[in-house]
Design a protein that fits this description.
Length: 185
């Protein structure tokens, strides 16, 4: 099953991204291959398995936010919430956000291929992550009602596909379907 897919490292060549390179080092250091679900839990900090603590990434959200601030996509602000201050990271580069929104909108409308295996893998991965982050409706919110309905129905049909079946058919996108299966669990 897609949930039992094991993550095998093909290359440990550094990517230049601090978090990705740290992830590669963790995957390389494991004695036995772990499943997609296990790595999601470890790399998001969602598990506290004492036997796997050395593989957990620390402060993932904060580090991702910091990297996006450094790239000029987000900014850092202090928000006052009654009794305490909280750091927030609003979008400062609306152009980059709009580029991603437009890419997803077009993939479900003008560039719709009606076959996930013919879809650009990065776009499919972005769609799965947007769905899993509960921001997909926001992506289509600016569309006219009829286009919104078409985009949401196509997205629903795509995300309702059986990840097990699609992973078996996928050539090079198996992990995307395994991640969807893990998030749907």
């Amino acid at each position: 099953s897609a949930l039992s897919f094991q993550v095998l490292l093909k290359s440990d060549v550094p990517t230049g991204d601090v978090l990705l390179d740290e992830t590669l080092r963790h995957i390389k250091a494991t004695e036995s291959a772990e499943t997609v679900q296990t790595w999601i839990d470890l790399l998001t900090g969602e598990t506290w398995n004492p036997f796997k603590l050395q593989y957990q990434l620390r402060n993932v959200r904060e580090r991702i936010a910091k990297a996006l601030v450094e790239k000029g996509i987000l900014t850092t602000e202090k928000q006052n919430f009654l009794l305490f201050d909280m750091t927030t990271h609003p979008v400062s580069n609306a152009t980059e956000k709009q580029r991603l929104v437009k890419k997803l909108q077009e993939s479900m409308l003008e560039r719709w291929v009606n076959d996930p295996h013919r879809m650009d893998r990065r776009t499919l991965a972005l769609l799965v992550l947007a769905h899993s982050s509960d921001v997909l409706e926001n992506v289509f919110a600016s569309l006219a009602d009829d286009k919104y309905d078409v985009a949401m129905n196509r997205t629903k049909d795509l995300l309702d596909m059986d990840p097990e079946v699609e992973a078996a058919k996928a050539r090079g996108a198996e992990m995307i379907w395994a991640v969807l299966a893990a998030f749907n669990k």
